[in-house]
Design goal:
The protein is of the alpha+beta class. It has one domain: DD-peptidase/beta-lactamase superfamily (Beta-lactamase, 3-Layer(aba) Sandwich), CATH 3.40.710.10. Helices cover 33% and strands 20% of the residues. The chain has a 7-stranded antiparallel sheet with strand order 1-3-2-7-6-5-4, sandwiched between helices. The longest helix has 18 residues. The two termini are 32 Å apart.
Length: 264
């Protein structure tokens, strides 16, 4: 189902327009046009359902690290306790080397962010998640993994709300921290748009038969900003890894937020 929520007018979009991007997969996407104050939502019931944020939590985790001074700047080389987090066979090669915060963010380096959370500490972590009103704000399942299918849960609608608060400087953090995070999040910078985003994903069950993928962020296009948050189900992490970005970009192209591929 596709839903557009407007303050005072009816929408003219094809109700099946965004559904086609999911190709039968179960999921939701919320897109918010800030200039028009207009929401587009595929699967509105699911858009309010909370799930583990997985690596999309690297956005608030990075903010907290910078704001508390656990990470002093985005050019510093960061390390983690290799006795506590020894390399595992499934790790990408890039995870096995020290990295700056932007590198760790783009590489989604889990051990480094687990170390960051431990360095931040429980009291500070809880303080900032409460301050950010981030999802259910529950870190009780473990300081270094509560966002990895643990106690912390957030919905697609809440992801949008958090990103808007970050960009509108309403999180109660310093301007410098917010500006650094905006810089870290940039993925694509073209002449006519800038895409800033973070992926996330993992298994929701012990048997590793049900996976969830996230893609959240925003697009700056000329003088307008469009926020988006997608989550989608799959029977494996590889399945959601391959589909999450393509589904979100399909929806953003359908709404002419991202350019459509040129035809030969």
């Amino acid at each position: 189902m596709f839903l557009s929520i407007l303050p005072s007018a009816c929408d003219k979009e094809d109700p099946e327009d965004l559904s086609a991007c999911f190709a039968g997969r179960e999921g939701t996407i919320v897109i918010y046009d800030e200039y028009a104050d207009r929401y587009f939502v595929h699967n509105p019931q699911r858009s309010e359902q909370r799930f583990s944020p997985f690596s999309t939590f690297k956005i608030p985790n990075s903010l907290i690290a910078l704001e508390t001074g656990v990470v002093h700047g985005i050019e510093d080389t960061l390390f983690w306790n290799r006795s506590r987090y020894p390399a595992e066979d499934w790790w990408p090669a890039v995870w096995k080397t020290p990295q700056t915060l932007p590198e760790a963010f783009q590489n989604s380096t889990v051990p480094l962010y687990r170390q960051i959370a431990r360095d931040v500490g429980e009291a500070q972590m809880q303080k900032y998640l409460d301050q950010f009103s981030y999802g259910n704000m529950d870190i009780s399942s473990g300081l270094d993994d509560f966002w990895l299918n643990g106690s912390l849960q957030i919905s697609a609608v809440e992801q949008i709300r958090f990103l808007r608060s970050l960009c509108d400087k309403r999180l109660g953090i310093s301007r410098q921290t917010g500006d650094l995070m905006v810089e870290v999040m940039v993925l694509e910078k073209k002449t006519n748009y800038t895409l800033s985003a973070k992926t996330g994903g993992g298994y929701l069950d012990a048997k590793q038969e049900q996976a969830l993928g996230w893609y959240v962020g925003y697009v700056d296009k000329y003088d307008r900003r469009y926020y988006f948050a997608l989550n989608v189900d799959g029977d494996s992490f590889e399945a959601v890894r391959k589909s999450r970005v393509s589904i979100a970009k399909c929806a953003l192209r359908k709404l002419n937020i991202l350019p459509r591929p040129k035809k030969d």
